[in-house]
Amino acid sequence: MAKYLLLKHYRGAPASVNDVPMDQWTPEEVSAHVQYMRDFAARLEGTGEFVDSQALSAEGTFVRYDGEGRPPVTDGPFAETKDLIAGWMVIDVETYERALELAGELSAAPGAGGKPIHEWLELRPFYGESPTITE
Amino acid sequence: MDEVLLRTLIPTVIGILVRRGADFAAAEDAVQDALVEAVRVWPHGAPRDPKGWLVTVAWRKFLDAARADTSRRQREVRVEDEPLPGQGVGVDDTLQLYFLCAHPSLTPASAVALTLRAVGGLTTRQIAQAYLVPEATMAQRISRAKRTISGVRFNQAGDVATVLRVLYLVFNEGYSGDVDLAAEAIRLTRQLAVKTHHEEVAGLLALMLLHHARRPARIGPGGRLVPLAEQDRGLWNTRLIAEGVDVLQTALARDRLGEFQAQAAIAALHADAATAEETDWVQIVEWYDELVRLTDSPVARLNRAVAVGEADGPRAGLAALAGLDPALPRHTAVAAYLHERDGDLVTAARLYAEAARSAPNLAECEHLTRQAARLNAQLRG
Fold first, then answer.
1. Are B118 and B98 within 8 A, CB to CB?
2. B158 and B45, same structural domain?
3. What pLDDT score does B377 carry?
4. B9 beta partners
5. Which terminus in chain A has less CB density within 10 A, N or C?
6. Is residue A134 a part of any domain in this protein?
7. For residue B80, what are the domain limits?
8. A56 touches chain B (CB under 8 A)
9. Cβ within 8 Å, pair B357-A34
10. CATH number for position A28
11. pTM of the predicted model, to two decimals?
């Protein structure tokens, strides 16, 4: 099994096909989208492939060390151009192909007009464990 | 195995070990070990005397640990079976545990964790699951908390107010993992109310009961948040409401008002309305005035602005909102609601979308997005 991170971006990813902001959908479309995400996670729990899913608040700040005895420097929140992660799902699957398949399904979550968003998700493999048997 | 019964025994057993001469930290560890063993072996045959079993096993665990410890640190250990003279006589151990676990030197998160373990009798694993942190992290949080209070004498009187804040935090955490923290908070507050006759303990208990009564109506299909005005009031638990109102009235009759009684009074007025339209907003505003007077809390002022909007119209609500810090959590959501009531749908839709972006949790974020979507759909015609 291999773990993959499915990253969803508030911004920074290429524009999705059905690119309408959520507050311009109908309330029913919002509910349908939320339900799709829930069902997707529940189904992966059922197949033994779900690890974790978290959503992030839309605001964030960059922080860095600024030397001994000085408070950290902060930067942001940033203008629209910067990358901003909305949340993630971690899956544990047999093959890369399976990870692609699931990412594709998640990207098909319904949006405006009840049609798939075709949202770009970022698929990132985790580093695996070092094998016990090496030769 | 009745797990709640098992948990009610935990503070008593800790108290017995402390009276036998164990310090609190060691006694608490030993009882936790015994608890974990009980969870493991009781399903295969519960003992006839659960408390006796727990005391015996915990005491053995304590002695094992103390012996191991003595050889390392030469700590003096008293192993008498009888309570030491002058110690703990006439003192309620459970009440002392509440005070100790909510000691003001602890951070709120530590006090919550320690209370759930030593008073609530939950295992570290259950507490970790409820707060979505690894078990090792929670174990460290608890052992650091115990080190922090190691100098506090067990029989020192504490402040009920700090205990109530801890219980309030536990209740507000609601429900995640396999432990219902809201129900657990109610159990612990109920137990505390039996041991003290403090009006605010009763006030908090009433507040919890009245809010818990509405829980079945608060979450709709797919985890959707249902606002008070739209809740199916037939789903409210009338038994809990009746109990909450009863507890509150008894407390109010003693004429020593506090913030929890005032909050409970507001919850009781909501519970009393058969439909949202029948809500007595004028009285609710009066209670918010009391609450602001008692706490001077900006959150109370914000909620008061909503109530004023209902009692005297949205313009009055917006005026009440005007003086408050816009950075307050939910300020934008309240502004959106009042603007909608005032008929300014464009502003309301914009503010709902803005409020969704700064919502404190996902359920609220989705709820506010849906509100923005609803108004935008309406505006498009």
1. no
2. yes
3. 94
4. none
5. C
6. no
7. 3-195
8. no
9. no
10. 3.30.70.1060
11. 0.87
